[in-house]
# Entry
Amino acid sequence: MIGELRLLGLAHGLLLGLLLACSWQVPDLLPWGIDALLLVGGFQLRLADRRIIPRPGAREWISHIRMAPTRLIRWGAAAVIALIAGHADLAIAILLAALTCELLAYPLTTRLLGRVPLAPAAAILMLLVAALGLPGPATLHFILGFLTGVTAAIVWLRGPDGEPRALAAVLGGSAAAVATAVIFPGILAFAAPTLTVCAAWTLAYLSLLRRPVTPWRLGAPPLRLRPSAIRRPLS
# Structure
């Protein structure tokens, strides 16, 4: 199933376009957009990586490193956008965070949290979201954003698969995050990553919702055969 990856890929491209627009119109929104970009990127990477059979020992890490240059292109694009906006320090922080996440943080996180049940994974996710709201170095902040996306994907993989009630819950979480940020602007730093996580979950759930199965019919009642008639040899 690649539907959730397709929707998240579209969201990733849309975020890059919005970042480019922000660099010209509202440069102050650029750090928020980069946070969302890294979070969605971590979420998308974990969903794509789950379909690959892990290799034993260090071969899994080597395989991940060999595929890293292709994924680093989008982080390079984000760094270029930061340079266009005149934030050279932000561009350096993006590149350092991308290299750290791809080469070290992601392999370690998937190894440590690969078999963690739903409840502990959700608790770790809440701690990461809380840490994102605290002030700190930009590089560390971006690394935490990426790991938040990876952990959010792990939580989503442990949850219900394409259930409408789960979709309603994450939509309610998105609305609550927006309302909280409007009513209490001081906690915007915590509400923004919560909204991004809920938005990523929403896209993933939307790609897996299926219509009710309806039986195929030709307009005539289906032919019903008794087991005895099926077992009876042709004469």
In short: Residues 59-84 form the longest helix (26 residues). The two ends are 47 Å apart (CA to CA). Residues 3-210 form one domain. The chain has one domain: 3-210.
